[in-house]
Write a structure and sequence with these properties.
With 107 residues, this protein is mainly α. It has four helices and no strands. The chain is 63% helix and 0% strand. The longest helix has 20 residues. The C terminus is likely disordered.
């Protein structure tokens, strides 16, 4: 699951969204950050579902409307911090943390 999160976060580099779209991404990244900090796989899944739903808007980027821009620098930094945290969890000395029974605090 965390590997899927990293892949979805890295895909943000390819998105073109309006300012409102990037504001929503900021909210979702904040939710994901809290979920990762809490070690809540259910909350991580919920946040990832929020990003997946936004991909529809990304695919519609050719439609007329508000000006679309690539990921803003502050969203990129927020994303990079999350990718770093998730990558540490995947590559840490105890291995992946999204396996039940591996870390008692997350069970």
């Amino acid at each position: 699951m965390r590997r899927r999160a990293v892949n979805r976060l890295r895909a943000l580099d390819d998105w073109l969204l309006s300012a409102e779209g990037w504001a929503r991404v900021e909210e979702v990244l904040g939710e994901l950050n809290e979920a990762v900090a809490a070690g809540s796989n259910d909350a991580i899944d919920k946040s990832l579902a929020g990003l997946q739903a936004m991909e529809t808007a990304n695919r519609a980027r050719t439609l007329p409307g508000a000006r679309k821009t690539p990921i803003p620098a502050d969203r990129r930094e927020q994303r990079n911090v999350l990718v770093g945290r998730l990558t540490l969890d995947l590559n840490g000395p105890d291995g992946p943390r999204d396996q039940r029974g591996t870390h008692p605090a997350t069970d």
